[in-house]
Amino acid sequence: YSTERSSMSSLQALEFRRNRLTQEVADNLDFLIGSISSKGFKYPAYNLTAKIEGKTRTRHIPKDMLPLARRLTLRYRKLKSLLRQLDEVNWQLLCKRASLNLYGPI
Predict the structure, then answer these.
(1) What is the chain's Cα-based Rg?
(2) CA 52 – CA 16 distance, rounded (Å)
(3) Which helix (H) or strand (E) holds 96?
(4) Contacts of 67 (CB under 8 A, 6+ apart)
(5) Residues 60, 46: Cα–Cα separation, whole Å
(6) Which of 17, 15, 13, 12 is nearest to 85 (CA)?
(7) 66-99 and 2-27 helices cross at what angle (nearest 10)?
(8) How many CA atoms lie within 13 A of 84 on its CB side?
(9) pLDDT in tens, 63-84
């Protein structure tokens, strides 16, 4: 009985962690993909460069929008990290549910 209770509490802990991660993902959906550079110019100018569908795409960033663009590109990196963590928690949930014979939605 205590093993079953322990398994259920670890399942609840994983579900809690999953809920926290999904909320963090939702909180970071304002993002930009790419890196910011100022290469190739003789005056202060910035570009956002990203690979989109196999092609490199470069977009000009207005100087006054540079701080926001930097925050949004950092947010994308954070979002990727959160998704990797969420993937791991989902895997652990899948394994835990299988061991408890719980085959419903995550």
Answers:
(1) 21
(2) 35
(3) helix 66-99
(4) none
(5) 6
(6) 17
(7) 160
(8) 6
(9) 899 999 999 999 999 999 999 9
Residues counted in the chain: 106
CA-based end-to-end distance of the chain: 24
The model's pLDDT over 7-64, given as tens digits with 9 standing for 90+, comes to 778 999 999 999 999 999 999 999 999 999 987 667 778 999 999 899 999 999 998 9
Largest CA distance in the chain: 72
How far are the Cα atoms of 18, 45, 51, 54, 57 from residue 66, in angstroms, in the given order?
A: 33, 10, 20, 25, 18
**Strand arrangement of the beta sheet that strand 35-37 belongs to:** 35-37, 46-52, 55-61
Lookup: tokens for 73: 């590109």
